[in-house]
Amino acid sequence: MRGYRALMRKLIWLFLVFATFCALIANAQPEQQSRLWKAQWITSASASERDLAIVHFRKTINLAAQPAHFVVNVSADNQFVLYVNGHRVGSGPSRADLAHWRYETYELAPFLVKGSNVLAATVWNFGAHAAVAQMGDRIGFVLHGNSEEERIADTNSTWDAEQATGIDILPADVGDFYYAAEPGITLDASKFDWSWNAASPEHQESWSKAVPLSAGALRGQSDAPNSWQLVADPLPPMEMKLEPAGTVVRAIGIPAPSEFPNAAFTIPMHTNASVLLDIGHLTTAYPALIASGLGATIRLTYAEALLDKDDEKGNRNEIEGKHILGLVDEFLPGSTSHEFMPLSWRTWRYLQIDVQTKDQPVTIEGMRSWFTAYPFTEKASFQSDDTSLVPIWQIGWRTARLDAHDTYMDTPYWERLQYIGDTRLQALISYTVAGDDRLGRQAIEAFNDSRIPDGLTQSRYPSSLVQMIPTFSLLWVGMVHDFYMYRDDPEFVRRQIPGTRAVLDWWLRRQRPDGLVGRIEWWPFVDWGKDFEGGVPPQDESGGSSVLTLQFIEALRYAAELEDAYADRHMAEDYRRAADRAAQGIRKTCWNQQYGLLADTPSQKHFSQHANILGIWLNVISADQHKRVLTKILSASDPGFTATGPVPAMTAATYYFRFYLARALEQAGMADDYLRLLKPWHDMVALGLTTWAESPEPTRSDSHAWSAHPNYDLLTIVAGIHPKSAGFGKVLIEPHLGGLKQVHATLATTKGLVAVQYARGTGGVAAEVNLPQGVSGELVWKRRKIPLHPGTQNLSLR
Q1: Which of 304, 509, 536, 576 ranks highest by number of CB atoms within 10 Å?
Q2: CB within 8 A of 390, min separation 6: which ones?
Q3: Same domain for 549 and 465
Q4: CA 584/CA 546 separation, integer angstroms
């Protein structure tokens, strides 16, 4: 019988792999199935193959008439900005690995005219100075016409190339903090070819014929001629819109130019001057500064916050006695006016313009700011009679927006890396607030693609440096399950199951006979707890971490649900047995009778909120102990919670892991206390933060995606809107209003908006629930279950 089940599991595994392959072929675009690209990847003869290179490409095409359509596919390594007749068309490609290299598709017809047309692109490869999230091979550019008529635009030796001069990189100098994003750049206007994309460039001698590398190759093509396996970008274009560039809040060396950035000001010769702008909130944008003045140096410094004499941030609204430290761009203006805009977008609240003039004055004519981010639309809402929750929602949404571009990212200033721990929470916000799963799909697939041969996903991807956090692989299984519950695409979920199996196989091989996991290698990060060394909870000599084992249990249970729904029920039973064995092992070896808490290991020398949070949420701690345990662990960190009995010293959860604390609060039947857990966020508001920080003060990052989960919590815990079945096919409404008297909330689903209103009166709560067409469910209030039907219903809750 056991051999038969093993054979069946193997056959089902092979079927899943085969089905995934067939789905990929079936979903391939016609060009992937039936024709090869003729367009060539091109480079410049003078460009270094591996090192820093910034190249201009151009080609003039002649058209008998303005076309109704002119569609092209464009890619580059690392990045490009495409122009047609001087108009910026777009930039890209969105980040991925070489096996899934993205190309963007553009309709050029609106930019084309009858007669001569100039197609042009700036392409750069920062080489060793590139962001860690940037993967790549060597500098290259490809543009492919979508039909025979459009192939006149194909990249090949008919294109011209020019090595950009006067432009170089400035490595970030941000002190001892880890910085992994794009470098700054320096641009000398007197050496740069400002006419490079004009109809007739001034410096013809600097141009030569582009050098073809090899043909563009779509993923799945046999015997691909290069490393770039091209696939269509599944994401929409990033948002680009003008926003105010800020207000002058300080000037040194000159009178404050109060009308800037909307009006010009002049700095005399032989002067050092500084102008500080405050945009009022954090932003991700392209700054565009217009200036002239030969011999001068202009430095733009970007910072999330200013620093005091002790290099601490303090209140972000205060500038007195503070200085700026951050990423720098440098512009050396020429004798005539030019606009400087860096190749990559920047992150800042404060932007300082430092100017040093020599024998000529400098005129700063103005500055613009082009906001950019993933084009999420805020469809959900949360309103209540507690006005202090307004900034909680607004700041959370801004954090979620700024940390989402062509990938999710932990922080838009410091790293721009798509980590699973952050991304899981970001994706939930995207599903529920924006009703958009495109970036979530990209992330799930990217992590699946990142798996190393032994089965684990990488902790962050795309990434030019391999980093392994085995616990994040477990959270990726949770991401797949989240998608299964909140979105409605069974085929997409089914394609991930071979990956979830590979991850759990790695962990199952490390499960000890007592059910706990053995010592976990790599970097088993959990949270930046103050006495978690490197974010890692304690392990005994042979492992036995209750925290790591509990995360393993969560993933096993989720995977079992997925197997039941789409694959192998015998595998689901195996996962449940492994989870039960792990839970029993934790109860037997880690439960401390003296304190009535879970210890972090069987040696019971260390305690954390994390072990007990997960123990409650996953029902490893018995239900009759939930409230007592939760009250005890919160008594040391949150005002208003008073413990009975002794409380040991324990590691507290930071902003990130309080997402799981909120889940435990709900599991323990204490969700009416949720709003009391928001004190750390109210404290950040009082400190002037406009996005949520990475960790409590002092903190490196003022915008960290994993701290934005209160937006999700307000909708799911307070307003009480949950999926009751996969794909949000049925709805569970279970509100926990705490002390709120009025709540009005909407949550986005694949079926439409779920809307709820609650009004507390002397006789109870009047509730109005509106469900999308075809969606039913139930409302739970004080253990009473009330059926819900599509449309609007008014209920009296007592």
Answers
A1: 304
A2: none
A3: yes
A4: 11
Record the tokens describing residue 185, joined without a space: 């750049």
- 486 and 577 inside one domain: yes
Note whether residue 728 is domain-resident: no
DSSP code per residue over 390-406: HHHHHHHHHHHHHTBSS
| Same domain? 27 vs 42 | no
Contact predicate 552/476, CB 8 Å: no
Residues 633 and 688 in one domain: yes
Please report the pLDDT score of residue 195 as a whole number. 95
Cα diameter, the chain: 90
| Cβ neighbours of residue 241 closer than 8 Å, sequence gap 6 or more | 370, 371
Residues spanned by the domain of 7: 1-35
What's the pLDDT tens digit per position in 403-434? 999 999 999 999 999 999 999 999 999 999 99
How far apart CA 671 and CA 780 sit, in angstroms, is 13
Asked whether residue 29 carries a pLDDT value surpassing 70, the answer given is no
| Sheet containing 79-84: order of strands | 87-92, 79-84, 115-125, 53-63, 160-163, 208-209
318 and 285 both lie in a single domain: yes
Sequence-ordered list of residues with C-beta below 8 angstroms from that of 577, at least 6 positions apart, any chain: none
- Give the integer Cα–Cα distance in Å for 259 and 514: 71
User: Three-state secondary structure along 594-623?
Assistant: CCCEEECCCCCCCEEHHHHHHHHHCCCCCH
The model's confidence at residue 643, banded by pLDDT at 50, 70 and 90, is: confident
In DSSP notation, 126-191 reads -GGGS-TT---SS-EEEEEESSTGGGGG--STTSEEEE--SEEEE----TTS---SPPEEEEETTT
pLDDT exceeds cutoff 80 at 682: yes
Residue 785 lies in a domain: no
Sign of CA dihedral 222, 226, 229, 235: negative
Distance from the Cα of residue 535 to its chain's centroid: 20
**Residue 250, both tokens:** 């300080």
- Do 111 and 200 share a domain, yes or no? yes
Q: Pick the closest to residue 350 from 301, 394, 395, 401 (CA basis).
A: 301
Read off the pLDDT of each residue in 175-191 and give the average, rounded to a whole number: 95
Instruction: Tell me whether residue 725 is in a domain.
Output: no
Supply the pLDDT for residue 634: 95
298 occurs within a structural domain: yes
Q: Please tell me which residue, 583 or 19, carries the higher pLDDT value.
A: 583
Percent of the chain scored above 90 by pLDDT? 90
Long-range CB pairs of 224-228 (<8 Å, 24+ gap) are 226/41, 226/137, 227/98, 227/137, 228/41, 228/75, 228/77, 228/98, 228/101, 228/137, 228/140, 228/142
Q: Is the pLDDT of residue 82 over 80?
A: yes
* CATH code for the domain in which residue 72 is found: 2.60.120.260
Torsion-angle region of 142 (φ positive above 0: left; ψ -120 to 50: alpha; else: beta): beta
Residue 14: pLDDT above 80? no
Which tokens hold the place of 189? 């206007």
| Residue 112 confidence class, pLDDT cut points 50, 70, 90 | very high
Q: Region 131-142: what's the mean pLDDT?
A: 97
The per-residue pLDDT for range 427-484, each reduced to its tens digit, is 999 999 999 999 999 999 999 999 999 999 999 999 999 999 999 999 999 999 999 9
- Expressed in percent and rounded to 5, the helix, strand and coil fractions of the chain are 30, 30, 40
18 and 50 assigned to the same domain: no
Computed on alpha carbons and rounded to an integer, the radius of gyration of the chain in Å comes to: 28
Q: Do the Cβ atoms of 440 and 480 come closer than 8 Å?
A: no
Same domain, 74 and 135: yes
For residue 580, the domain's CATH number is 1.50.10.10
From 684, 718, 752, give the residue that closes a domain: 718
Q: What is the tally of structural domains in the chain?
A: 4
Tell me whether strands 272-292 and 265-267 are parallel, antiparallel or unpaired: unpaired
- Distance separating alpha carbons of residues 201 and 510, to the nearest angstrom: 64
Q: Do the beta carbons of residue 600 and residue 555 sit within 8 Å?
A: no
SS3 state of residue 324: coil
